[in-house]
């Protein structure tokens, strides 16, 4: 298990001066940010209070990206800022453990923030636009407004340099309502904005720090971003208010990508270099490049045609041509007897799974014509090839046309192979493609309930794992349910993963804070609702409850989804729905070992009348059967009351997450049997 640290001095020197800084970079101390109260003050007010200092290279700095909640003020009620403050405090004091996603941990990547690094962060600095860029609306004098406008413009054009100067990039994206549009802003709306994507890509293309992007969605849900999220969010497809901004932003992203390719080439990181080189036009929105064979060999750093043909593992010639979508070169390389099944190593930062073949790489392109897939199939690539985990190519496709072609060439729509025994539909739901991809798999009769051994998941289970980071999760869930997916089906692992489950349960007993993957494998014998609770997918969880999912279904340890919940938003929804009986139940009796602390109206994306993402809170408390219960006040319908109660949300939701009584652990099924299995492992 490694701790996050800064990259080598050589990498820092490599990045020196890549982006031009046109004006000073102002920052504020983290300790000062944590002490602020009320609505956040703007740049000019902080300078008058002597809270801003000029950044120097020696500073440990956090770059904060966020979406404004108003046209003239980013956070006129201070809600977003208070959530950020409490989340930051929870990270610094260790209440929240920052981890990589479960897939990365499955492959042994256990990056986290060490206690020593968290201690350093308490003395760090922070950049955020409202604090560190002069604000025109603060000035009333015409001359001052014009001066500030020019200075703000220089700051905005310097943002790539500011991002590059920071060691940590944090996206603050809680689900809150925009003051003027009355629409909810969230991680998904942030990820759609062109400037936010530009900031994110500047961070991703820099090697200044190996700390992944941090995503803050609530006071108790702070996570490292997954690679699949940024790979599917190129800057040129983002939303810009002005087309001129799109052109300017794409220009400096291209410069950053060129610089990264040059650096990777010098470092001899050939697999990663060739990946970025192959996706170059995709990431920049440029037309696909057709290359001659000599141009191809030079561009991808193959010393000769003979060397390209002989390479049998890693990012070989066929893999490069497939990933760049060049069907003509695939045919030329096949004539030269280049191997069709070169296998790649696992590259977690690029969402490349172990033993992927050129056909896997062709499938992850979202080309409408799937030209590379068609060429490989014509050249007799095996459409039923799986990697060492048993992942079928059909499950990695990003275009409906690729799926059609694979099935036409006899790919098994319900293929299941060890180790995981995941069907194409199960794998696709995990990888969050466009809904059209899921629709095509269903159209071709992908089974929504098929599971047999292996990891034992259905498509609805795998959808729930990353639903909080998948903008299409509710639409896909609706498709699966329409196809008669079993809402209450428990995951049933095969013998190997059942042994892993028991081993993980033992680790959970002896370790105070086991890694996420240990908790997932140890508690994974639950329903899709349980997976949504475990991973913090409150929107999907609410939707499944509306569709009749049973919150009483227990896993092998006897724990319900409520007892598996790790985040306050999930706990709030489940505690209300299970205590009020507002969902269909197949069992009688109470389920919650922990008393519901807050019977709130659940968040539903189909209920736009809700004034707050988690519903209004009232501080009024009662006692019911000896347990404290927070009640909605009688005048909660008034706008004034709703406003006041919403302002208490950040503080109260934090207490729900961090102070709720823990659920008692049930008796193990068979301690002797468990010890025997663990010993045999």
Q: What can you see in these coordinates?
A:
It is a single chain. The chain has 681 residues and is α/β, with parallel strands linked by helices. Among the domains are: 9-233, no CATH class; 590-659, no CATH class. Helices cover 45% and strands 6% of the residues. It contains 35 helices and 11 strands. Strands 2-1-4-3-5-8-9 form a 7-stranded mixed sheet. Strands 6-7 form a two-stranded antiparallel ribbon. β10 (621-624) and β11 (627-630) form a beta hairpin. α18 (317-323) runs antiparallel to α19.
Describe the protein's topology.
Layout lengths: L8 H7 L10 E4 H6 L7 H6 L3 E3 L6 E6 L12 H14 L9 H5 L8 H7 L3 E3 L1 H4 L9 H16 L1 H7 L2 E5 L3 E2 L6 E2 L1 H6 L1 H11 L9 E5 L2 E4 L2 H5 L11 H25 L2 H9 L1 H5 L8 H7 L5 H6 L6 H7 L3 H9 L22 H6 L7 H8 L21 H9 L15 H8 L3 H9 L15 H7 L7 H10 L12 H16 L5 H8 L4 H8 L2 H9 L14 H4 L3 H13 L40 E4 L2 E4 L8 H9 L1 H11 L11 H10 L1
Parallel strand pairs: 3-4, 3-5, 5-8
Antiparallel strand pairs: 1-2, 1-4, 6-7, 8-9, 10-11
Helix pairs in contact: 4-34, 9-11, 11-13, 13-14, 18-19, 19-21, 23-24, 23-25, 24-26, 25-26, 25-29, 27-28, 27-35, 29-30, 30-32, 32-34
Main traits of this protein?
681 residues; alpha/beta; two-stranded antiparallel ribbon; 35 helices; 11 strands; 45% helix; globular
Instruction: Estimate the mean pLDDT confidence.
Output: 85
Q: Estimate what percentage of residues fall within beta strands.
A: 5-15%
Radius of gyration: 26 Å
> What structural class do you assign from the helix and strand content?
alpha/beta
Please sum up the structure shown.
The chain is α/β, with parallel strands linked by helices. It is 45% helix and 6% strand. The two termini are 21 Å apart.
């Amino acid at each position: 298990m490694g701790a996050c640290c800064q990259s080598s001095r050589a990498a820092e020197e490599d990045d020196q001066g890549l982006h031009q800084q046109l004006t000073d970079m102002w920052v504020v101390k983290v300790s000062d940010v944590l002490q602020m109260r009320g609505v956040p003050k703007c740049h000019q007010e902080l300078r008058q209070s002597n809270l801003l200092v000029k950044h120097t290279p020696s500073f440990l700095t956090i770059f904060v990206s966020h979406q404004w909640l108003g046209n003239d003020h980013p956070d006129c009620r201070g809600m977003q800022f208070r959530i950020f403050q409490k989340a930051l405090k929870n990270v610094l004091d260790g209440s929240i453990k920052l981890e990589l996603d479960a897939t990365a941990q499955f492959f042994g990547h256990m990056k986290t923030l060490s206690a020593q690094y968290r201690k350093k962060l308490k003395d760090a600095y922070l950049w955020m636009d409202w604090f560190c860029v002069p604000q025109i609306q603060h000035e009333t004098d015409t001359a001052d407004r014009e001066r500030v406008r020019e200075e703000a413009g220089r700051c905005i054009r310097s943002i790539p340099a500011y991002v590059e100067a920071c060691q940590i990039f944090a996206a603050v994206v809680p689900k809150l309502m925009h003051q003027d549009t009355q629409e909810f802003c969230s991680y998904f709306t942030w990820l759609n904005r062109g400037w936010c994507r530009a900031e994110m890509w500047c961070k991703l293309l820099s090697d200044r720090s190996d700390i992944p992007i941090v995503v803050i969605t609530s006071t108790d849900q702070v996570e490292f971003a997954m690679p699949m999220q940024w790979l599917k969010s190129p800057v040129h497809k983002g939303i810009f208010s002005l087309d001129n901004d799109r052109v300017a932003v794409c220009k400096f992203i291209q410069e950053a990508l060129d610089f990264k390719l040059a650096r990777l080439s010098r470092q001899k990181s050939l697999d990663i270099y060739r990946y970025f080189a192959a996706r170059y036009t995709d990431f920049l929105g440029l037309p696909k490049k057709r290359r001659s064979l000599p141009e191809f060999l030079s561009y991808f750093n193959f010393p000769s045609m003979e060397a390209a043909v002989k390479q049998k593992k890693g990012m070989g010639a066929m893999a490069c041509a497939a990933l760049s979508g060049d069907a003509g070169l695939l045919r030329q390389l096949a004539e030269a007897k280049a191997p069709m099944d070169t296998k790649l190593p696992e590259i977690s930062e690029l969402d490349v799974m172990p033993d992927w073949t050129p056909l896997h790489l062709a499938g992850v392109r979202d080309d409408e014509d799937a030209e590379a897939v068609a060429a490989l199939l014509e050249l007799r690539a095996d459409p039923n090839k799986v990697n060492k985990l048993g992942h079928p190519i059909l499950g990695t496709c990003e275009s409906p046309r690729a799926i059609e072609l694979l099935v036409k060439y006899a790919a098994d729509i319900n293929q299941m192979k060890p180790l995981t025994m995941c069907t194409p539909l199960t794998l696709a739901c995990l990888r969050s493609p466009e809904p059209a991809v899921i629709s095509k798999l269903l159209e071709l009769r992908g089974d929504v309930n098929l599971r047999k051994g292996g990891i034992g998941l259905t498509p609805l289970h795998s959808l729930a794992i990353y639903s909080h980071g998948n903008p299409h999760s509710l639409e896909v869930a609706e498709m699966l349910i329409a196809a008669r997916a079993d809402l209450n089906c428990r995951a049933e692992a095969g013998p190997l993963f059942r042994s892993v489950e028991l081993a993980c349960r033992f680790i959970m007993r002896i370790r105070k804070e086991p890694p996420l993957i240990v908790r997932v494998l140890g508690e994974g014998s639950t329903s899709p609702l349980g997976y949504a609770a475990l991973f913090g997918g409150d929107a999907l969880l609410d939707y499944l409850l509306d569709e009749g999912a049973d919150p009483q279904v227990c896993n092998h340890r006897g724990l319900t989804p409520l007892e598996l919940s790790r985040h306050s938003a999930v706990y709030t929804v489940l505690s209300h729905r299970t205590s009020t009986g507002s969902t269909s139940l197949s069992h009688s009796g109470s389920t919650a070992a922990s008393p519901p602390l807050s019977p709130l109206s659940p968040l539903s994306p189909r209920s736009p009348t809700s004034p707050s993402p988690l519903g209004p809170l009232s501080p009024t408390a009662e006692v019911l059967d000896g347990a404290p219960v927070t009640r909605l006040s009688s005048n909660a319908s008034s706008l004034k009351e709703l406003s006041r109660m919403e302002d208490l949300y950040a503080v109260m939701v934090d207490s729900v997450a961090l102070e709720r009584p823990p659920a008692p652990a049930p008796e193990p099924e068979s301690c002797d049997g468990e010890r025997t299995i663990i010993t045999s492992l």
